[in-house]
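Request:
Um, any thoughts?
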Amino acid sequence: MNTARPLLIAVSGPAGAGRSSLVRRLAELLRQHGFEVRTLSCDGRFPRRRFDSPPRVRDEEETARRPDGPPRRGSWARRAHALLDSCDLSVRTRATRRALSAHARGRPAVVLTDGGPLDELVAFGFPPGYPASGRFARLVHHYDLTLLVEAAPVASRGRGWDRAAGLPALRWARYRDWATRLPRVARLDGGHAPARVAAEALEQVLGTLRTRRLPDGGEGTHPARRKRVVVSVYDDAADAEHGGGGALVVEKVARRLSEEFDVTVVTAGRRAGSLHDDGIRYVRLPVRRTGPRAGQLLFVTMLPFLARRLPHDAWLESLTPPFSTSFLPLFSRAPVVGIDQGRSAEALWRRYHLPFFLVEKARLRCYRHIVVMNEADASAVRRLSPRADVQVVANGVEQRQIDAARIGAGDHILYLGRIDTWVKGLDLLLEAYWRSRPPLPLVLAGSGTQAEERKLAALLAAHPGSVRWVGYAGEALKRDLLRNCAFLVMPSRHETFGLVALEGMSYGKPVVHFDLPALRWMRDGGDIAVPPFDVAALGDRMRMLAADERARRALGRQAGQAAQHYTWDEMTGRYLDLTRRLVDGSVHGRRPRKERRGRAWPTTH
């Protein structure tokens, strides 16, 4: 049972968990199984020659996230201490591993460390995403396994590291939080007898060794790795200010792909960082400080350079409007899929009279695989890039049980979405509402840039009345607004799919919208389509539907039934199937054959 290199195993856990004794017992068991074993203490040894404890910040809230700003960075001495620890840990583990590999001469070998990067992350207490945290998180990738000994938190009698890390309960909470973010962490119940804990640890080590060998069981082989997939999107589903429908779709797709692939999500942030969450690695590019438009341009510009450095077998790129696309396929040797969730070149031409469509046409021709949300966009993309294999994959929605008593009921008309007066047609909506005066109040829910929010505030100030703007709607508020509204209105001048409309339909709510080609998937699904940008017709339909509960009830039933055809499971399954074909080599970056050109998957409706 040979290995190409020694396993690197960390034994981690809070004070009083029996970490050191487990290392000794596990080392003895491994030697009995024929392993060459080296043990190493990796608990901040180098800096502690100068410091009795890590340099203290004033209190625990020094590095806590404040609601009104970014988290504080802590003292310079603390950050320097973390840098020294990470360098010391990296150098000593690499040196020990290399020395043991030469000594073992092909025999199975293991380096056991008493402590590891997980303990350092807990001790210093920096928030995820910080450079100091990222250094230790990257060191975890060098470990084949981290054994976390779970035990009830106990108060430390000593001084130094454990005391500096905070109270026992807080320290243990940090262990649990980081254990879910880091890869290859196995938990052991420290409440069992020491011999049983050691036996369980041995099984984990042997299981890790088996996964490093190829399925044919050949000796001396390198570990069989999973294929690597990168998904890039400017918006971040974890960021309330910069989240959105596109970020939500990417998050769902990434979690489905992580079932079979090693997935990395590249997104934008205010500072550079890398962390793991639920088996997915998140890499954030520091571009948001430059503003929304400059940040998007920088993000698109950085992707081709990142593609040369980030190993991947396939790349799924969510295209970023208004710049639409990057030249990523020219820089990646692996297949690249462009996910077109927001084609806006035509809308920007109508708004600014700038020829964004020329750039969009030139860049889309670089892609051989493109996914769009609806058939109208599929036809447009096929014209722009005739050689591309264009797939149509609709969005999905969480399936929920609709309360039959609530269908047709509601106490307000709801607009839910990004605050962008021109693109989302808020000026048309407000004009239609003030002209027609429906018998229900209008509620606007959403946020946008400061300029757009000031523009909306000015419009509302000019016509005070029964229009209420509630600002950003979190999940709880959004559910409440959707559940209690009479119907939704979508007055957009430009849309790609309309995920908000689908969410409303899942609650059994009708949707009033302009008859845009991208929104025709809603036909006969409880929607009311009016001629594009006809303010008078929009106002008439809003007044009619607000006054007719029976009509709302009939349309609501149709909407609820139509929403059941759009599931996240089916949508993400189509992305998974496409990615399998790409990484298996059955789909290449070459020009599709003539008989396949223009072929698309049907939507889920």
Observations:
- Residues 76-104 form the longest helix (29 residues).
- The radius of gyration is 28 Å.
- Confidence is low (pLDDT under 50) at residues 45-73, 154-166, 213-223, 586-605.
